[in-house]
Structures are given as C-alpha cells and as structure tokens.
Write a structure and sequence with these properties.
This protein has a single domain, classed as endopeptidase fold (from Nostoc punctiforme) (Alpha-Beta Complex). Helix 3 (42-56) crosses helix 4. The chain has 172 residues and is an alpha+beta fold. The termini are far apart. The protein has helices at 4-15, 28-33, 42-56, 75-84, 94-97, 159-164, and strands at residues 68-69, 72-73, 102-104, 114-117, 128-136, 139-146, 150-155, 165-170. The strands form two sheets. A six-stranded antiparallel sheet has the order 3-8-4-5-6-7. Strands 1-2 form a two-stranded antiparallel ribbon.
Length: 172
C-alpha cells in the first residue's frame, strides 16, 4: 500500500509523455488550411492522433506474415497493435476488421478511419487494411504494411490502391 501512491504518480507522469514522428490535423483552423474540415470532437482528435502516432512508429518495419512487432508485421497486425495501445481491441484479421465500426462513404473518411482492400484477383474477399493518417485537398493517405516494402504510407489516389479499394469503416 505504501508503494501505491508513488507508483500511481509515476504512471501518470510517464503516460502523458510521448513523442511522435508525425501528427494529424488537430484543430478546425489547421483543417481549413488543408481544405478539410472535420466535425470530430477534441477527444476524437486526440484518440485518432494517438492511434496514428502508434502506427507511425512502425514505419519502415519489414513485412512479416502474422507479425505484430518491430521485427516484422503484416497489415492487420499493424492496425491491431496501433488500436490496442489505446485499449481498443479489434479482430486480428483484416476481413474481420471490415465488419467492425460504422461503414463510411469514401467522401466521409477522416484521420483514424480504416480503409479496406481486395488485392487478390482469385479471391473475392477483403485481404488488406490501412489506417488513414491524413486527408489533404481530398486526397486520402493511409499507413499499411505491404509484402514488398513493409510499413509505408500510400495514397488512395494511386491507381493500384484506388482499384483495390472496397470500403471504409470508423472505429473511433
């Protein structure tokens, strides 16, 4: 019991400290500068920002089927780990993630939303997922893990991803 109070203070001090490689738009003023105005509350911004920053830590990590660590990860592993850091548990497989949350039109997608893809011509099911990191002038950027380049950011405007796009969902 005598260690409880100092431990609690220690946890609170260090849980509020974090560094980030990148950030998302956090105010309506900043959003207006990029021509995207969101209606998210400040707490939604913070949560989306935290999930995105967790994912960005893994940028450059190589692809590993079933992986969830800095030694290697797959697309759903990246999303699973980023959300889990904020105590949001998602299914581990992209096609199962695609049934979570609220379905969105592409025009409604914002930072922190998930985008789903069908990249196999032989299989008619979702097999890839990405996390939207930003919108800029209508362009949607997302982080994901690819077999060839590992964890990277891409744009939905790229022909490959635009053709493979299936749907988007809001978890936050």
């Amino acid at each position: 019991m005598r260690y409880f109070a100092p431990l609690l203070v220690f946890i609170l001090l260090f849980s509020s400290c974090k560094s980030s490689k990148s950030r998302i738009v956090t105010t309506k003023r900043e959003a207006a500068k990029t021509s995207e105005v969101s209606t998210a509350s400040p707490s939604e911004y913070k949560l989306a920002n935290a999930v995105i920053n967790h994912a960005l830590v893994y940028e450059g990590v190589r692809y590993k089927y079933g992986g969830t660590t800095e030694r290697g990860m797959d697309c759903s592993g990246l999303i699973y780990v980023a959300f889990k850091k904020e105590n949001i548990l998602l299914p581990r497989i992209s096609r199962d993630m695609a049934s979570e949350g609220k379905p969105l039109k592409k025009s409604e997608v914002k930072e922190g939303d998930l985008v789903f893809f069908r990249t196999s011509k032989r299989k008619n099911k979702i097999n890839h997922v990405g996390l939207v990191t930003k919108r800029k002038k209508g362009e949607i950027f997302f982080i994901h893990s690819t077999t060839s380049k590992g964890v990277i950011q891409s744009s939905l405007d790229e022909t490959y991803w635009n053709k493979a796009y299936v749907s988007a969902r809001r978890i936050l």
